[in-house]
Design brief:
The complex is a heterodimer of chains A (119) and B (110). By secondary structure, chain A is an all-beta fold. In chain B, strands 1, 3, 4, 7, 8 and 9 form a 6-stranded mixed sheet that branches. In chain B, strands 2-6-5 form a 3-stranded antiparallel sheet, with no helix packed on it. The relative contact order of chain B is 0.34. The chains are: A mainly beta (119), B mainly beta (110). Chains A and B meet through β5 and β10 of A and β3, β7 and β8 of B.
Chain lengths: 119, 110
């Protein structure tokens, strides 16, 4: 059974940093691209970033480019989202997701972790 | 402002057929497959359709899709109360080099 378990969400001040983790199990982790998708309070889903199975290729939404970095450790079956220069509009539930194939048909999702950016 | 445009709301009565539209451009819907998600508040989104028309196992064939040019639509037939949820379309955007979502459509079963 595919399982994705996010952690690391917290309350952080504007301008601060945070690292989210997503521990995966139940599949061959290195064979799949992984993504982060977020949902701000009262808003819709927003794709944040994706990384290839090997970790050699990554993509970012314009809203986080230059501030967020996605990485993965295939030996630990874990994908990370390093978030810097956090802003109030980064406040959201962050979901880790795995696609059926390719980059974006997200068949498997974690339960989400809440990031709150506030002073 | 979402790259893909969906109506903010839709409604229908049990048994009815409801359609939700998703309008994009040549760099996303027009050139890449569309995925559809169902999202209930407080839960993880659920994949309904991918690769334009593939349904994961367990998704009933009441959910069907169509696509023409830069627009796609999700049709839900035989509407049931448990279909009340938010629905999102998504696609890869070649210009942005990333995934774009629609703003979501809140479906109400009257």
């Amino acid at each position: 059974e595919v399982q994705l378990l996010e952690s690391g969400g917290d309350l952080v001040q504007p301008g601060g940093s945070l690292r989210l983790s997503c521990a995966a199990s139940g599949f061959t982790f290195s064979s799949y691209a992984m993504s982060w998708v977020r949902q701000a309070p009262g808003e819709g889903l927003e794709w944040v970033s994706a990384i290839s199975g090997s970790g050699t290729s990554a993509h970012y939404a314009d809203s986080v480019k230059g501030r967020f970095t996605i990485s993965r450790d295939n030996s630990k079956n874990t994908v990370y989202l390093h978030m810097n220069s956090l802003r109030a509009d980064d406040t959201a539930v962050y979901y880790c997701a795995r696609s059926v194939s390719g980059w974006y048909s997200f068949a498997y999702w974690g339960q989400g972790t809440l990031v709150t950016v506030s002073s | 402002q979402s790259v893909l445009t969906q109506p903010p709301s839709a409604s229908g009565t049990p048994g009815q057929r409801v359609t939700i539209s998703c309008s994009g451009s040549s760099s996303n819907v027009g050139s890449n497959s569309v995925t559809w998600y169902q999202h209930l508040p407080g839960t993880a989104p659920k994949l309904l359709v991918y690769s334009d028309h593939q349904r994961p196992s367990g998704v009933p064939d009441r959910f069907s899709v169509s696509k023409s040019g830069t627009s796609a639509s999700l049709a839900i037939g035989g509407l049931q109360s448990e279909d009340e949820a938010d629905y999102y379309c998504a696609a890869w955007d070649d210009s942005l080099n990333g995934v774009v979502f629609g703003g979501g459509t809140k479906l109400t079963v009257l």
